């Protein structure tokens, strides 16, 4: 199921109206969801978005990781997008 289907878009719009942030946990990789996240952020700029755990991106060591990390950085064009990161300092 796509997040950009009719139901997903209605939920995303309503979250923006109510001031409720939407969180994404891209555990299987940002590259699987980036186009939908970009579409939703473009269409609904008043909906705040949190990407948990830096969208499971890490400093790139290969082309696939470079693409995902680059796409993550491109989300900075959306002022409503926030990254959340938990650090284990042990």
UniProtKB/TrEMBL annotation:
InterPro entries: ACMSD. GO terms for molecular function: carboxy-lyase activity. Gene3D superfamilies: Metal-dependent hydrolases. Keywords: Decarboxylase, Lyase. PANTHER family: 2-AMINO-3-CARBOXYLMUCONATE-6-SEMIALDEHYDE DECARBOXYLASE (PTHR21240), CATALYTIC_ HYDROLASE (PTHR21240:SF19). Belongs to the metallo-dependent hydrolases superfamily. This is Amidohydrolase-related domain-containing protein. It comes from Salix dunnii.
């Amino acid at each position: 199921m796509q997040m950009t289907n009719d139901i997903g878009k209605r939920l995303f719009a309503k979250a923006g109206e109510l001031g409720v942030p939407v969180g994404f946990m891209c555990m299987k990789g940002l590259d699987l969801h980036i186009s939908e996240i970009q579409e939703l952020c473009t269409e609904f700029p008043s909906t705040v978005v949190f990407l948990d755990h830096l969208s499971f991106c890490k400093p790139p060591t290969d082309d696939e990781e470079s693409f995902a990390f680059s796409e993550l950085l491109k989300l900075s064009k959306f002022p409503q997008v926030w990254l959340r990161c938990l650090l284990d300092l042990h």
